[in-house]
Amino acid sequence: MTLPIAAIQPEFIATISKNHVVVSAATGSGKSTCLPLWARAQGRVLVIEPRRIACTSLAEYLAQQANTQLGEQIGYAIRFEHHFDEHTQVVFATPGVALRWYFDNQLSDFNVVMLDEFHERRWDMDLLLALLKQQNLRLIVTSATLNTQPLLRYLNACALYSEGKMYPVKELFMADDSRTMPNKHDLPERVKMACEQAIINTCGDILVFLPGKGEIQTVASTLNQLPVLIVRLYGGCSASEQQLALNVQNIQRVILATNVAETSLTIPNVSCVIDSGLERRTHLRGGKTVLSLEAIAKDSAKQRLGRAGRTQQGICIRLYGEHAPLIVTTPPEIHRESLTELVLAAGCSSNGVDSLEFIEALPETSKTAALSKLIKIAAIDEQQQATELGKALYPLPVDAELAYIINAMPSKSLQQAMVDAVAVLSVPARVYQLPSNTERKEELNKQLPNHCDLELAIALVREQLSCVDFDHDAMREAKQFSDQLRLAFDLPERKHAASYDRTKLVQAIATAKPDWVFVKRNNRRGAFGNGDSEVIPAKETRIKDNCEAMLVIDTYALAGKGTKQAMTLATVNAPITLQMVAQLNLGQQQILGATVDDGQIMVRCVQTFAGRHLNEQLIKASGNILIDACVNLILSDKLLVPAGEQITQSLAQHQLYYQAHNTPCEIISPKQYLHDKLGEIGLCEQDDIALIEPQDLFYQQLETWQLEPFIEKHPLHVKLNDLLMQVEYSFTAKRILLNYVSGNRKEAPKKWEIPAWPGFKIRYKKASKVVDVK
């Protein structure tokens, strides 16, 4: 069969020998299978595919077509698995693998690099393109969209376009209102209705686009009575399911798939697409990348429809309205994900993220947050380049922050425990399900009485629990993570895992990541806070209702109708005590009061964290607390009298003088002045107080001959026999306000009773009543 892409073969071969090439071609045109083989004339070819399933299936298909063993001429490399050697001519790899190879040798083993499906705009593909632009490698970039002008300018590349062959596809919309947006309400039932309609109207296979594995499993259960073969296709599905999806069967199929089926993969014999209009898309929440259920963009809807018109006329049944206000294009990942991994990868593979020219500028806020986080954990330096620690963390197959915590564990036994916990956290799918029946719950509580999710995750990876159900594919991946991390950190194999102290593990994690410590809020039932953000324990957690504090290790966001209604749910948690939070020295020490008792300064302190009082105690003041205590005692005239009164009055007089003479000055409070002065003097111990005279603390900037005549004419307070008033001056407006402070006098003062203020309009204020002084 001649593929549509064959029309550009001569032009492609002539162009690739001299220039970078950007190929725009519809999905199914053959670009993923033909271009790498044509490019072999230039040398060894690396094809970077955004998805693992595409990597393996394309390599297997081409090896089969070439009638060779996988790994000989054609091979692949994905996480945990590879089939190729130094003689393999074409190697398919995921972006993560390619980035780690670039870190090792700048991909010097290859002559041509092809970035397939670039229109998906993953952050790792953007980074690879920026890195490869600096290398002496021939580049092929493919895109299923027509807007390739930015790419052409960026690479100074030549453009090639292949039309592709497309059969007519009729669109049907299953919504009462033409503007109905995609939604998950009654999704299984609506999919079933669409499938029943499709079975009547088409004899080919039916491809259903769903947002995730959970929805696929639910819909599969709903369709089990239909006379079709139900096939599940998603990232991480078994090899047998992949084969069922990628090969025609002797019975009509309903293939339930995520976005993995939108591009790259060729699913034969599909004549009907059922589009839920939904996907799980990443976005930023509190600086963290989270997944949420979203309506697809118009470009994605077009890609989905195209799957029904590859080999025959088709139909596309949309489960939303014809005029639903979908966004035009899916936003690039750099705009909706944390850039921590990108910045670390750039620091390992270049002179820092700012040394690279990206096809689109990185968002400044996200980039700054990533730099700050990586500098804080010492993974990169101030010049944005990776430290030795950063270079050690980067090749690990887990998030840099999680790798940092493993490295921060103080002993090998705690490191092993953290590795096994991280292994579960790193699997994108849900690994386990808490028991629902009473008997299994009691068994779990007996085995793990601390109600700690962290313990549960570790025990599962170590195969120490039998009362918790888990997804076998996800658990297999978790164990692979554990085995690989144990090898990287030179730890014993899983079967020889060391026992560990749970309390010491929690303390070590909290020390490395204090922002993971949350305490129960006083003002909201069920909510926990850390001073910056708030979480609510998810139903999947084992944390008990009476838990006062916890270590929050993993979360997900649950969107509400408005921003304020959005919630962050804590899923993997470890209970801790408020005493442990206090011992970690988190939060702030606040002085409730200070006293001089038998010559000693004692303070009543409370330690607070996220608005929660952790402990209260009476202690002998020392260090910074001593200075704070002395400030309070001096200003309340209980220590070094009359320093407090002089400082308060002199500061106010100086500021009034500067105000009258329109002279710029720093407005400083008596408390701040005293704190700075005592620090300048070097007050550290209580014995130092005996060496300080009150006059040592006095505030005096202006000469007495300057200040005293001015204050005599412009007093801060005016006292009559039965009335005390505070004077408020407005020199520019020539107004003075006398504020009542105390006294029994009922009427306003007379003008002859108060100082002469020529040219000023004078008013008197008591409570809310303001009158002119006459």
Automatic annotation (TrEMBL):
Domain Helicase C-terminal: 194-350
InterPro entries: DEAD/DEAH_box_helicase_dom, Helicase_ATP-bd, Helicase_C-like, P-loop_NTPase
Matches recorded under CDD domains: DEXHc_RHA-like, SF2_C_RHA
GO MF entries: ATP binding; helicase activity; hydrolase activity; nucleic acid binding
Pfam families: DEAD, Helicase_C
Domain Helicase ATP-binding residue range list: 12-164
Swiss-Prot/TrEMBL keywords: ATP-binding, Helicase, Hydrolase, Nucleotide-binding
SUPFAM superfamilies according to UniProt: P-loop containing nucleoside triphosphate hydrolases
Protein name: ATP-dependent helicase
Protein's organism: Pseudoalteromonas holothuriae
